[in-house]
Amino acid sequence: MSTATDRSTVPALIRNVVKNIHPDTHTFMTHKVNNVWVEISYKQALEKIDAISAWFLEIGIKKDDHLALIIENGPDYVYYDQALQQLGAVNTSIYPTLSETEIEYILNDSAAKTILVGNPFLLRKVVKIANNCPALIRIIPAFEDFEKLTDKLSLNAGVVGFKQVIEEGLSMVSKYTSAINSAREAILPSDISCLIYTSGTTGTPKGVMLTHHNLTENARVCLIQIPIIDKDDVFLSFLPLSHVFERTATYHVCLFTGCKIAFAQSLDLLAKNMGEVCPTVMNCVPRLLERIHDKAMKNGTDAGGVKSKIFSWSLKIGKQYREVKEQGKKPGLVLNNQHKIAEKLVFSKIKEKTGGRLKIMLSGGGALPKNIGEFFGDLGIKVLEGFGLTETSPVMSVTETDRIIYGTVGRIIPGIEVAIQNYDTLKIYTIQTHESFKQDFESEEGEIIVRGHCVMKGYWNKPEETASVIDKDGWFHTGDIGRFYRGNLQITDRLKNMLVNAYGKNIYPTPVENTYLKSPKIEQIFLVGDKREYITAIVVPSRETLQETFNLSNEYFEKPDLFIEDKEIVDWINQDIKRQSNELAKFERIKNFKVKRNPFSMEEGEITPTLKAKRKVIEKKYADQIDEMYLQEAEAD
């Protein structure tokens, strides 16, 4: 099946790189070991990949077996994944933040035979539930001294270190080379490559079956949409590879093009790593961009005086320059010279903190507030937004580099159809494709539905749930509300998130929440108001800003009271609530709110791994505080 240019399956991608793009001595990945960046060539990676495949065959792993991973990003993830992929086995990645109960459910639902475990904390979780998972035959810790945690335990599954797996596998490669090659050649594009469990905002996790074709075709057409990515680019990877966005938009795109992948040490060290790696492309989530924006604004305005005036002037010039360029015009001599000054005095200094070489940043996993996209555009950093779900591999649309419409998620990718459907009558308002694109096209609002190469094979072992989201005509119903605006797809909100107040007014929380999130005082906000007379909210303040403003110690955030009642702090936040409310319709404005001491978290089960609020969980957990907000207003009236 394979040819020199075959890119139809995940394991074919890396082989294509060393045949057609780079010599096998070229750097494939880099990561930090003992505080030093270590480069790994394609040859070194392939040797380990084949060794692990040989070891898998030795213990009886075969095509279609499910093999799990619960590990942070790094070369070990890639070695293990590529090794199982070329045997036709199925990658079952588990978010490191999941609870023991959720890990047990996924291991049993998928019947995973092995699991690669990234650190001692995760191994403690796994060994607690391992004997409840009858299909599990091997636990593979990817770190030293794991024996301290397993030696005294009576485990049904064998425990063997990843280092030992590779060492033993290297001695077996010659024995299994023919079998590995045959297995790789036998993989069909329609075969399942991975199971990714969506936690969702409600309900039991579902294993999304994505095929080799789903994943490789998604990477291929995204590169058609973003042609400026080439073999010399350097990606900095920090979003979890257990999520399909990072896996497709970094890992598979890099395998497709021959780009180098640098693995960040952690989110806390991301800024430092950016300065060291100097990436040219990076995938991110809106919250990271919001934090960069907030910090830049704070640094630029806090000093006051001349420095603050120069910063504000530079942003004004950047905005004018961007808008002229976006209109397809050439900036005049005066504006051009002003922009050069702004670049030297302000923009270049902000860009230096990202490494100074960023061509583009790709934002996904949630809606990017329009003002944040415009801010980066004013600096001269292109932020491209994409849209999709785990069930769509994930990309359905992505911004074109030469046509950024802020507040939209770009043009439909080649090879699929996206329609807008009335969610009550099921009437389809419009069907759009990459080829039908028109710059001035606009449509009515409705549910976004899609069909084509990006749509999943279905949910593992859940035919009824699959049938509930993929209709008889092959349309996958995303549950997202949107429309087409200036030819691009624009997301309004999640269908399940929509609030309908007591007067029948539809309120989409996301744009309202994004309006309030413009305040540097607010870190998170959760709107309440379904079947209620007015909107209330749970507000999480920016800890850094709160501490600086009120000189608070870390102990303040460790108090047992979940909510902050200090009038001074509540009034301080209310100043911005009132200010931002002016941008909203009266029925969308917050009438009362509670200040939560600490952020909503995955550990508490309040948000998904992609940072989406679990509405039912939050409303149930804080029902008393929510009811109190409405009682307070009723008493005031």
Automatic annotation (TrEMBL):
Residues 31-460 form the AMP-dependent synthetase/ligase domain. It holds the Pfam family AMP-binding_C_3. One of its GO terms (cellular component) is membrane. Keywords: ATP-binding, Nucleotide-binding. The keyword Membrane does not apply. GO terms for molecular function: ATP binding; long-chain fatty acid-CoA ligase activity. It comes from the Bacteria. This is Long-chain acyl-CoA synthetase.
